[in-house]
Each structure stands twice: as structure tokens, then as C-alpha cells.
Fold Stimulated by retinoic acid protein 6-like protein.
Amino acid sequence: MFLKEIICSQMASFDLELWTHQFLIFLAAIIFMLKIFKLKNIKKSPSNEFLYTKQILCKQKSSPIFSNFYQYNKFYRFPKQFIITNSIAIFLINHASYKLYKNSQTFIATCVKFVNIGLLFLSGEKNLKPDLNLINLIENLSKIFHQIIITSIIIAYLVSLGQIFLEIRAYKSRVLRAYGGIHEKVLGPNQLANSKIISASIHFSGYKIAYCLWGYTNLLDNSVYSRKMEKIDPGFISYASFVHMEVYMSHPIKLAFCQIVGINSKKGKVLKFRNKWFLFYSLIKNPQLKNYRKKCNMKNSNIQRNFLVFTQKADYEPGISNMKLQFN
């Protein structure tokens, strides 16, 4: 019986229209994000990294008007966490705006009541006759105040959506530049410890939603502090760490190279290619090894030449195979 009363009370307080409205807004936000990013198939295709690497040297054709608003890249894919986080941010902005609009009229009516009580208190009369001019003035002021609130909500809503779009555009451009080793307006990977990057990137979604709810300030890519004080801002640190982790984990050129190396790994050609790559990387990182390697190669070539001469003599002179070899 007690459980039945709880269920009935919950059903009575359930606003079907509100939740239907919020669900449709959330669904529209997801569809909007998927349409923008061309993610009908969110799962990456195996050849996407190859296609991205191939088109780097090709000049992309894009409309000059559209490129001023958004830089389209056919083979770039946004991370799922970034898409879901921004979808939730849009949903929360819609929900907050709808709640403010719905409760604005109640708030104004409450303010009018307090004004009337204040007038009664100031007049000092218990039976105050209604003044039509004063009542009309209060009603007109309440209507004007209500229009101001609605206008403020609409402006804040549009500004918040614009901030989300600007952050998406800035995130994409910064990740693409970071693929080439250019870090602009974001703390470089050398300025943050690896442990800090890993731990701070995990909190990116939480700071994004929290900043969205706190006064519509959802721009994490621009810190509210100065350039010297950016490391104090935890939201900006989480954003920069998230960018670095995305570059580390989804660099298309690195992934394409690893896939090429991993194809038919049982063959000796791939093993030989991998060894040459390790040798090339070691010589780049250690230039002092080049001279030692050159001397070693010259010594090996002398050994091989002497060995060939010895084998040729062994064919014509019997007993020479029992001689003791000495190489310079």
C-alpha cells in the first residue's frame, strides 16, 4: 500500500510534456552533431588512416565562404567522448533555458506580490483602496521585466550554442596542427608531466559539463586567467591534456605506419624493414653512433674480402684450410 502511494505520487508529479520535449531536444542534438561531423558510421574504417595520410599532400578544394566558418576534412574523425560530451552540453543548455523560461512568469508574479506587500507596509493602512493607476503601472513593469528576462534567456542560449560551435572548430584545428607538431594557444606536451596529462584528460567531460552549468561559460579552450596563470585553471588543463591524449592515441600517420608494419608480419621482408626502421631511428637519436657504425662496416667489408681471397686460394692450394687466419 505504501509502495502504491509512492508510485501514484511520482506519477502525479511526472510532467510528460516536459520529458517529451527534453527527449526530442536531446535526440535532435545528437542528430545535429552526427550530421555536422558526417558520422553516420561512427566506427572508424580500417583504411581511414591510410586515406588521411594520402590526402595530406593533396590540395583540398573547399568553398572560401564555408571555410571561414568550418574547415572540412573528409577523413578526420572526432572522438566519441568529445561528441557525447558536447551533445550532453547542448541538452543541458536547452533544459536550463526551458526551465528559466517556464519559471520566469512565476518569479515575476512573486515579485509583484512582494511589491504589493511593500506598498501596503509603507502606506500604513490596513484597508488600502486599490489605485488603478498604480496597478496598471505595476502590471506594465512586470510585462516589461518579463520580456527582458525572455530576451536575456534567448541571447544566453544563442551565445552558448555559438560557444560550443567555436570550441568544436578550435578543437579540430588544434588537433590537426598538433599532428604536425604545432601547438598553438595550448600548453605544449613538454610543459605538462605525462602523469598530469593522463589524469587531467579523464576529467575533461566533467569540467565541460560543470563549466556549462556555471553561468554558460563552456569555453574550456580559452582560460579566464592570463598566459602565465593558465596552469592554475583545472578546466583548461583538462582540455589541453585531452588534446594531447587525442594526438598521442589517434595520430593517423603513426597508425598507418603501424598497420603497414603489421601487415604480413610473419614474412621476412617485414622483419627486415622493421630492423632497418629501428636502425634509422637509433642513428637519428644518437648521431655519435654513425662514426662507429661506419668503422664497423669498413671492418666487416675487409673481413669479407679477406675471406673470399682465402676461399679462392683454398681451391688451388691443398692444405691451406688448416692454416690459422689473421685479419687486420
Notes: The chain has two domains: 13-41+78-250, 265-322. Residues 42 and 175 are 19 Å apart (CA to CA). Residues 13-41+78-250 form one domain. Residues 132-179 form the longest helix (48 residues).
